[in-house]
Amino acid sequence: MSYQFPPRLMQAKAAAHYLGVSASKFRGLDLPCRVDGGNVLYDRSDLDAWADRLPYRDSAIESPFDQWKAKHVES
Questions:
Q1: pLDDT greater at residue 64 or residue 56
Q2: Using CB atoms within 10 A as the burial measure, which of 15, 59, 63, 74 is most buried?
Q3: DSSP string covering 48-73, please?
Q4: Angle at alpha carbon of residue 37, lines to 1 and 24, rounded to 5°
Q5: How many helices (H) and strands (E) does the chain have?
Q6: Which is more confident, 11 or 59?
Q7: What is the CA radius of gyration of the chain?
Q8: Cβ atoms of residues 75 and 67 within 8 Å
Q9: Residue 41: phi, psi to the nearest 5?
């Protein structure tokens, strides 16, 4: 089935595709999952959170979260 938007819950193959990683790399990630009967499903918000935690290649580049945190959170 083809979607115009990513579904909220995805099986492993679709979740790996959503993240842009191979199925074998995806199996090695320690991601939370949900279970519906016999289906193991990955929540799009958990996948997004994993991707958001990845560092940028150039450490001089601040993530949007770091920029927001610098403006809004007191140290």
A1: 56
A2: 15
A3: HHHHHHSPPSSTTSPPHHHHHHHHH-
A4: 60
A5: 4, 3
A6: 11
A7: 15
A8: no
A9: -125, 145
